[in-house]
Amino acid sequence: METKNIKAFGADAAAAALTPMQIQRRTLTPHDVEIEILFCGICHSDLHQVKNDFGGAMFPMVPGHEMVGRVTAIGDHVTKFKVGDLAAVGCIVDSCRVCEYCKESQEQFCDEGVTFSFNSADKTHGGYTFGGYSESIVTDEKYVLHVPESLDLAAAAPLLCAGITVYSPLKHWNVGPGTKVGILGIGGLGHVAIKIAKAMGAHVVVLTTSATKVADAKRLGADEAVLTTDPAQMAKLTRSLNFILDTVSAKHDVNAYLNLLKPDGSVVLVGLPPEPLSIAAFSVVAGRRSFSGSNIGGIAETQEMLDFCAKHNITADIELINIQDINEAYERLEKGDVHYRFVIDMASLKN
């Protein structure tokens, strides 16, 4: 297959600094869309992959799975996009397409395993995938999203991961008018979850360990904000919530939050704690409560999420950076020093 060289930023080894590099992208096949990447969000999982925290990392690695840009070329059989369209690529760039989950537009559950935007074996074209810290990407139109014109492009980039990661479980567990929802943690995921849950019509209660984030929770649209380190505040919430979205990626006591649920309520984990979490039997048996998990969403649902966010004017709160500042951004991200998402202005890659 013919390829062409493009500019990118990536790491040559685990935990190495990200530096400029050249990578190869395939030339267009009949169903491909080529997108000039204008903005790319930085997800905490980018950092995990570069550090090989999950194992199996392939180097050189170009991270990035929150890409927003403009279509620059299309294959002969492309019907969904034309040159000049705004477009986005998220976490998934391919799947088997024939299993029951792919046929139901739930590609994230593909029996053969999805092909992710980076650090993933490319079963169709060979080699492995490179992500969005690059000039452009070539992707089958089936896995490309339309970006509503009304959205701020830079601030919309994190929706491709953070947005769908919280939208999917909120929708699946029927969050809406008449439900009282807890959002545990205000970070890259949590701050978007507050906005989306509120737009869905829920009464939103933020649960945070940070006193400084209590006021910010109200700014983001929360109805209440509770300091989880204050036993009196937590006691007032006992048996009061229908649903809790747990965005915390550090070790924490899930039982404390299960006990805040009404009967038949659910705590749904979307964070990725590095250690197993302990669940006490009575935390779930009492009240028929559930502890579940969720991870991203399918392509159709991701498009639905983007359209929902456009309708309700929802984007991430971001700090826009140049690609040359990526290593400093990673250091700050590791310390939690970002409110609430870094996004790379990819025009800086041309410098």
Structural commentary:
The protein is an alpha/beta fold and 351 residues long. It folds into two domains: 3-160 and 316-350, Medium-chain alcohol dehydrogenases, catalytic domain (Quinone Oxidoreductase, Chain A, domain 1, Alpha-Beta Complex); 162-293, Rossmann fold (3-Layer(aba) Sandwich), CATH 3.40.50.720. The chain contains eleven helices and 17 strands. It has helices at 44-50, 100-103, 153-156, 162-172, 190-199, 212-220, 231-236, 255-258, 281-285, 299-311, 326-334, and strands spanning 3-10, 19-26, 32-41, 67-74, 86-89, 92-94, 115-116, 136-140, 145-146, 180-184, 203-208, 224-227, 241-246, 261-269, 290-293, 318-322, 341-345. Strands 3, 4, 5, 8, 9, 16 and 17 form a seven-stranded mixed β-sheet that branches. A six-stranded parallel β-sheet has the order 12-11-10-13-14-15, covered by helices on one side. It is globular, with a radius of gyration of 20 Å. The relative contact order is 0.16. The model has no long low-confidence stretch (mean pLDDT 96).
Give the secondary structure arrangement, pairings included:
Blueprint: E1 3-10, E2 19-26, E3 32-41, H1 44-50, E4 67-74, E5 86-89, E6 92-94, H2 100-103, E7 115-116, E8 136-140, E9 145-146, H3 153-156, H4 162-172, E10 180-184, H5 190-199, E11 203-208, H6 212-220, E12 224-227, H7 231-236, E13 241-246, H8 255-258, E14 261-269, H9 281-285, E15 290-293, H10 299-311, E16 318-322, H11 326-334, E17 341-345
Parallel strand pairs: 10-11, 10-13, 11-12, 13-14, 14-15, 16-17
Antiparallel strand pairs: 1-2, 3-4, 3-8, 3-17, 4-5, 5-9, 6-7
